[in-house]
Write a structure and sequence with these properties.
The chain is α/β, with parallel strands linked by helices. It is built from ten helices and twelve strands.
Length: 341
């Protein structure tokens, strides 16, 4: 009686023998269309797979060459989740991969269980994202088992590659645009929340632009704790009540800027004839309000695409050192800026 119980070869067996990552083997055996794997490595993987007698369990016509898991802490806190997810999805699809988005609610234990459930055989790599730009919270310990990239968050001591928006440079560009239009009395309506890295960076960019152009930073023109339309209106009214009101205002977000629009019009003033306004985020309403709002565009979709590209680089080169990238926020000039009256 034949009692042979030969263990069925796995992708991990192939990876071990070839000396590449499990994710590389997955890309080759699932015929992902990207050019990330060299022809030499591809041929070696296929030869070892044939030698070991590896057989795919998926249908031969399965179009998915593997899964990139996108772990994100929240979807509801702002409108910025969609571009992050779309950037990852579209870039993954171009590489013959599927992007599986899992909302963790910030629960590390849940993220750990998801990675356990999916298992190494399916996962090409993991992108860990937060909706609010921040230092990464406690990360799942199992993140280290996969090629991984941090999206919209980063670490003080970089273990993983990361990408965040260039909020400081964006704050500088917004303020500089007002200075170049001729303004020198420029206010800022700031979110002021210490945990918001974006708020701190945008404010520091505003300050740096003023000092670069030899304009004194006037604390009277910086109002904090505004992160909504209503609070933007309230803070703008306070600025307009000053003995010497500003001729321009840089707002933490487009929503705050829309509140500033309300306040300016409540006082019978014109935008930009009497006061110029700049926002941040480039929400869809920013181009529809009158006058259309000058703002900074958050590059979330491009950030998601970069995260996939960097992840696949890590798949191919596991020893590649982590990089930290701040992606430029593009200044979108519209009709809300004019020279001071």
């Amino acid at each position: 009686m034949n009692d042979k119980t030969t263990k069925r070869p796995t992708m991990s067996d192939i990876a071990s023998q070839v000396g590449v990552s499990h994710a590389t083997v997955s890309l080759v055996l699932n015929e992902a269309p990207g050019k990330r794997v060299s022809e030499k490595v591809r041929e070696r993987v296929l030869a070892v797979a044939a030698e070991l007698g590896y057989q795919k369990t998926a249908p031969a016509n399965d179009p998915i060459g593997g899964i990139i898991v996108l772990l994100i802490d929240d979807l509801m806190a702002s409108q910025h989740a969609a571009p992050l997810i779309e950037g990852v999805r579209s870039a993954a699809e171009e590489q013959g991969l599927a992007a599986l988005t899992v909302v963790t609610g910030g629960q590390v234990e849940f993220a750990e269980s998801i990675l356990d459930y999916l298992g190494r055989r399916q996962i090409v790599g993991v992108i860990y994202a937060t909706l609010i730009t921040q230092l990464a919270p406690v990360l799942p310990s199992k993140l280290g088992n996969y090629p991984a990239v941090l999206l919209n968050c980063h670490q003080q001591r970089a273990e993983f590659s990361s990408i965040i928006p260039g909020d400081h440079a964006g704050g500088y560009a917004a303020t500089e645009a007002l200075i170049k239009a001729g303004h020198r009395r420029i206010a800022m309506i700031d979110a002021g929340r210490q945990r918001l890295e974006a708020a701190r960076d945008r404010l520091s960019g505003y300050r740096q632009a003023l000092t670069t152009y030899d304009i004194a930073v006037d604390p009277e023109l910086i109002l904090s704790e505004a992160w909504s339309l209503d609070l933007g209106r309230e803070k703008m009214l306070q600025l307009l009540d000053l003995p010497l009101p500003p001729t321009a205002v840089f707002c933490f977000s487009d929503r705050v800027a829309m509140g500033a629009y309300d306040a300016i019009r409540m006082r019978g003033l014109r935008i930009p004839g009497d006061i110029s306004v700049v926002g941040f985020d480039d929400e869809s309403l920013a181009r529809k309000i009158l006058p259309p709002l000058t703002t900074l565009k958050l590059p979330h979709e491009d950030m998601g695409r970069w995260a996939v590209s960097e992840l696949l680089e890590k798949v191919m080169h596991p020893k590649k050192p982590p990089v930290r990238l701040k992606m430029e926020c593009q200044l979108i000039l519209r009709a809300s800026i004019a020279p001071p009256p």
